[in-house]
Amino acid sequence: MDTVDQSEDGAQASVARRRLRTSEEKLAILEEAMAPGASVAAVARKHGVNANLVFGWRRLLKSGLLERNREPAALVPVKVATPTVMPDRASREVAPVAVEPVTRRRTGRGQSHIEVLLPSGVMVRVHGRVDREELAAVVAALRTR
What we know:
Elements: E1 2-6, E2 12-16, H1 23-33, H2 40-47, H3 51-62, E3 102-106, E4 112-117, E5 123-127, H4 132-143
Antiparallel strand pairs: 1-2, 3-4, 4-5
Helix pairs in contact: 1-3, 2-3
């Protein structure tokens, strides 16, 4: 709920204050809001929460996610048996890439359009004139990533 603070020069500044409520507090507010004839908005206002938050808590309660004295999740000990080492670029062997399929077609303006689909799923599209060596350098750079 918002509160208003008075600054040194007399101007009022709105400051949002957020209060975390325990499961017990949420359930008590829900019990009051769900009583016959109760207004959720009035109960929410009384406790300084937004009515939408109370409706959200009610959904959590109905789905079984909001319970009293809920046990925290147990932590399980983990032991790493084999250390994982990632190779650096210099030590990686670069396998040749089969650049299949290469599609070459003409666009409506008479320009050439080439598409190269790499095995990693990367698509290289080139419009216009293509220098074979430059395209090979681009494909080689992409396959090392």
